[in-house]
Design brief:
mainly alpha
Length: 78
């Protein structure tokens, strides 16, 4: 356990759930595209750093991470 704490960055990048599985769980739970946009917007609004970390945890590329964060900025300006 101590060695994991010493190498926190390696531990944080472990793939626990792939992006595709996360998407299938959301869809199976009945999330519409509008629901997903609201979810991202609220996560970004209330905890932007943790939102970024969560998306990176799913091993989503930096380019893909930028998209939901942009949705939030657009929604906040509207």
């Amino acid at each position: 356990m101590l060695s994991l704490l010493k190498h926190k960055s390696a531990f944080g990048r472990r793939k626990v759930i792939p992006k595709e599985k996360w998407i299938s769980v959301r869809k199976a739970s009945g999330f519409s595209e509008a629901d997903i946009h609201r979810w991202h917007a609220e996560f970004e609004r209330s905890a932007p750093e943790q939102h970024q970390e969560f998306l990176a945890f799913l091993h989503i590329s930096s380019e893909e991470i930028r998209l939901p964060r942009e949705w939030t900025r657009k929604a906040q300006r509207a």
